[in-house]
Amino acid sequence: MAMILADQFGVDREKLIKMAIIHDLGEIFTGDIVWIRGNVIDIENEEIKNWWKKQESKKYFNIIGKTDEYMAIFKELTERKSVEADIFWQLDKLEMAIQL
Question: What is the per-residue pLDDT across 60-100, written as a single tens digit (0 to 9) for each?
Fold first, then answer.
């Protein structure tokens, strides 16, 4: 979805695809756990999940020599600091709805 819809939203396709891959890579270690129920966010569990994602993903980023680049994207994604990050989180919700 990131690859196809990036052009429709007029955002950086490569960055959006990297965000999706980095997010899914992290879920290899934490699972795809729903942390948000309605308007309530379990901040403590979200921080634990992101910490594990960061630690485990960093190991693999080191292997391929892209630690700085990919960790910057990971940070941007988790802090929701860009249009691409906002769009990614909407696509993540859409993907969940499609699976349902």
Answer: 787 888 788 888 998 898 889 899 999 999 998 898 888 87
DSSP string computed for 18-69: HHHHHHHHHHHHH-----EETTEE-HHHHHHHHHHHHHHHHHHHHHHT-HHH
Q: How many Å apart are CA 35 and CA 50, to the nearest integer?
A: 11
Q: Which residues pair with 46 in a beta bridge?
A: none
Size of the chain in residues: 100
Predicted confidence (pLDDT) per residue in 24-40, tens digit: 877 776 666 555 555 55
pLDDT at 51 over 70: no
Question: In which residue are the tokens 């966010």 written?
Answer: 41
Q: How far apart are CA 36 and CA 46, in angstroms?
A: 9
